[in-house]
Amino acid sequence: MSGLNGLFGVGSNALASFQRAMSVTGQNIANVSTPGYSRQEAILTETLPENGNPGQIGTGVQVSEIRRSVDSFVEQQLLNSNERIGQFGASQKALSQIQILFNDANDQGIAAGLNEFFKAWQDVATNPADLTARTVLLTKADGLTKLLNQASSQLSTQRISLDGQVGSSINDINALASKIADLNAQIKLTEVGGQQANDLRDQRGRFLNDLAGLVDISSIEDGNGQVSVFVGVGQILVTEQTAFKLTGVPDVTNGG
To answer: Where are the domains of the chain?
Structure first.
């Protein structure tokens, strides 16, 4: 490539490269509010030069790669934050429901019933012959018994509800694990062919964050872009294109 034709070739390469870079910028702007989207960057590099006299002659510029602009440390911190939010959110919801059952915030629950019961006992101990004090004690004892029985029944109902929520969460976890394994396969197929699987990686990252909101996980990405996911103390959930299913097992030691 030399002379006028060479000049046109360099200009044509530059125009095509910058048009593609502008398309990447447009993609970033269009997805500025898309959850899980990672900003992309067009990497411009020199094209191969041609040999000439007295030396090589440049042939212009090209887009060699469209790269996701991500910080792996920040991604991991986001994953950890989603785990904590999920854990604290689930605990807060369950404890709030239990607090309503006991109704202690309004001084009408078990704590108040116990206080009244022991006060009645104190009155009887002070005046054993007082029939009114004895009657009050029996009334308070009966009221406390009803409160305890009611709380026991409501806690059983609450446990059944929580068991159902656990089962639903397990189904969600298994569905997300399957999606991550499928994306591992798509990412490998895409990147083996020399392309960048940016959008697929964004989808996988979004599913990982969703998964972290449901269960304590850790993840490792290998050199082929395949993510392995572990739950709890190291139980494998996803490895390459395989997802293992979690199952819920009732704990007989706590009644469910």
So the answer is: 3-69, 73-254
